[in-house]
């Protein structure tokens, strides 16, 4: 803590002690607002000065005292509202107390609405209550909270002093709310599935491990929502979705956080093409209703156009184009290794053929797919949960929706043949049977209808739609090392 902050802390504690000695403990006070700031402002838009009385409350973020009057601003969930206090209205004692309020304190005020000469709707204060004392000062504008770690660690301060961050995180809430409404309007049922699971299924990722003391059993935190949601299809629920947390004990980057939010949606009697229509309709409707535009500007000046039709391209065609080799998929592993390295990419001798090819896709192709693109028919080894393509058994009926150079939504024609599913699980597990979810296979043997399934990374979607630089900017409390 700086010496200045330490001094202010001491001064504020002295003010609190004086208040308590005078018989007023702000932490025991209460206040009942009638309106949020923005709602109060709207009340006066077509009204007359002093015709409406309101009670508003929030954190004091600015204060300007001019003799016998003071202008200040309160910050609440919906924004800021200006308040105007006068000595001749409040009285000498109350006005003196008002001037002692510190920036950061929580205050409730009652009064009438009027417009200043500059046209700003303001509350003419007739009474006020100090309801919480801030014992530490707020950062001095944004430069007082400039360290990226501190911004995330003290998100509560970031939300107070940085309007851009505040707007972005409120927009995230609106995005999630819209997705729920969109799916519910189409007869999808929201369900909740276990976070603690005995087998980490539905994706290839390293899980977090834990132990259940009462049961004496080791569990993992789920890496995907998929397998339990597909059990719902077996149970006769034709359209289900879940918006929930998943956990992967892997790297942290601009687009990866160990704890992240996923939407997964499954629809019986559909397939990956049905999911194409669903996700396009979802994102285009979301842009219209929440953003008010289907054009998303990027920091580099390019504009992503989410309206209209979206490009569709096969994975193999994109690889052939990127390598300049029409016969890429007939090449030997050694030839692929050499060509990949010639592109300036790392390629390990131990990698399988499909891993070498996918390194080219993830490093050279995907980052260049800025406009919405459905990349279809990926190698079968990349997902054991999808159906094989009828005319090419080396690929599966899937798409990866890529926008802004990152994967936003993968979707499959779900595998519902229990024998084919077991064979794919066994191939992926490399003979380690303890990694196979036999309970899920048992469920499939009872019959699952054909279905389309899709996942959307909510955090990545918010990066795209809010123009954020990093996943940390769209997660309220991202994982950090413990502070000192």
Tags for this model:
OB fold (Dihydrolipoamide Acetyltransferase, E2P), 2 domains, five-stranded mixed β-barrel, eight-stranded mixed β-sheet, 15 helices, BirA Bifunctional Protein, domain 2, 26% strand, elongated, alpha+beta, 484 residues
Structural account:
The chain is α+β, with helices and mostly antiparallel strands. The chain folds into 2 domains: 136 residues, OB fold (Dihydrolipoamide Acetyltransferase, E2P) (Beta Barrel); 255 residues, BirA Bifunctional Protein, domain 2. The chain is built from 15 helices and 20 strands. The chain has an 8-stranded mixed sheet, with helices on both faces. The radius of gyration is 28 Å and the shape is elongated. The model has no long low-confidence stretch (mean pLDDT 93).
Task: Produce the secondary structure layout.
Blueprint: H1 3-21, H2 37-44, E1 53-66, E2 69-76, E3 79-86, H3 87-90, H4 92-99, E4 106-115, E5 121-132, H5 148-153, H6 155-161, H7 163-185, E6 189-190, E7 196-197, E8 209-212, E9 217-221, H8 226-234, E10 239-247, E11 259-268, H9 272-291, E12 295-297, E13 303-305, E14 311-314, H10 315-323, H11 333-342, H12 353-365, E15 373-376, E16 388-389, E17 392-396, E18 398-403, E19 406-413, H13 418-429, H14 438-445, E20 451-457, H15 458-466
Helix pairs in contact: 7-9, 10-12, 11-12, 13-14
| Rg from Cα | 28 Å
Number of self-contained structural domains: 2
CATH topology of the largest domain: BirA Bifunctional Protein, domain 2
Largest sheet: number of strands, sense, barrel closure: 8 strands, mixed
Strand order of the largest sheet: 6-10-11-20-19-18-15-14
Assembly level? single chain
CATH domain class of the largest domain: Alpha Beta
- From the 3D coordinates, which CATH architecture of the largest domain would you assign? 2-Layer Sandwich
Unreliable segments of 5+ consecutive residues: none
Overall strand count: 20
Helix content: 25-40%
What's the helix count? 15
CATH superfamily of the largest domain: Bira Bifunctional Protein, Domain 2
Structural class: alpha+beta
- Overall pLDDT metric: 93
First-last Cα distance = 12 Å
Rough outline: elongated
């Amino acid at each position: 803590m700086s010496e200045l902050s330490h001094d202010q802390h001491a001064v504020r504690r002295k003010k609190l002690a004086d208040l308590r000695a005078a018989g007023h403990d702000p932490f025991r006070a209460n206040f009942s607002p009638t309106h949020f700031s923005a709602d109060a402002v709207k009340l006066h838009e077509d009204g007359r000065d002093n015709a409406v009385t309101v009670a508003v409350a929030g954190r004091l973020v600015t204060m300007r005292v001019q003799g016998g009057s003071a202008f200040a601003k309160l910050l609440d969930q919906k924004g800021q509202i200006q308040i105007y206090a006068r000595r001749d209205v409040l009285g000498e004692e109350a006005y003196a107390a008002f001037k002692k309020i510190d920036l950061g304190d929580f205050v409730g005020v009652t009064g009438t609405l009027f417009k200043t000469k500059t046209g700003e709707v303001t509350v003419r204060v007739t009474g006020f209550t100090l309801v919480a004392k801030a014992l530490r000062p707020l950062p001095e504008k944004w430069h007082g909270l400039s360290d990226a770690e501190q911004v995330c660690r003290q998100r509560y301060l970031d939300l107070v002093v940085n309007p851009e961050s505040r707007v972005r995180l409120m927009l995230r809430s609106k995005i999630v709310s819209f997705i729920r409404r969109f799916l519910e309007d189409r007869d999808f049922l929201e369900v909740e599935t276990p976070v603690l699971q005995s087998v980490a299924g539905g994706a290839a990722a390293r899980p977090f491990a834990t132990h259940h003391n009462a049961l004496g059993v080791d569990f993992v935190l789920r890496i995907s929502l998929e397998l339990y949601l597909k059990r719902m299809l077996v149970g006769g629920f034709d359209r289900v979705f879940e918006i929930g947390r998943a956990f992967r004990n892997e790297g942290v980057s601009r687009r990866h956080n160990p704890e992240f939010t996923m939407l997964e949606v499954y629809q019986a009697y559909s397939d990956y093409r049905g999911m194409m229509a669903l996700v396009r309709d979802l994102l285009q409707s979301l842009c219209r209703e929440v953003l008010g535009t289907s054009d998303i500007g990027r920091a580099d000046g390019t504009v992503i156009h989410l309206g209209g039709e979206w490009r569709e391209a096969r994975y193999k065609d994109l690889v052939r184009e990127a390598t300049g080799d029409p016969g890429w998929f007939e090449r030997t592993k050694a030839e692929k290794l050499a060509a990949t390295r010639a592109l300036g990419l790392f390629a390990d001798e131990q990698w399988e053929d499909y891993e070498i090819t996918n390194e080219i896709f993830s490093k050279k192709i995907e980052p260049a797919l800025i406009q919405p693109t459905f990349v279809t028919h990926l190698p079968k080894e990349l997902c054991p949960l999808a159906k094989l393509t009828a005319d090419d058994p080396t690929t599966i009926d899937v798409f990866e929706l890529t926008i802004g150079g990152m994967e936003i939504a993968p979707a499959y024609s779900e595998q519902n043949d229990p024998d084919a599913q077991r064979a794919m699980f066994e191939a992926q597990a490399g003979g380690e049977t303890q990694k196979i979810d036999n309970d899920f296979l048992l469920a499939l043997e009872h019959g699952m209808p054909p279905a389309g399934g899709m996942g959307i990374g909510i955090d990545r979607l918010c990066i795209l739609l809010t123009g954020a630089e990093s996943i940390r900017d769209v997660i309220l409390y991202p994982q950090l090392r413990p502070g000192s």
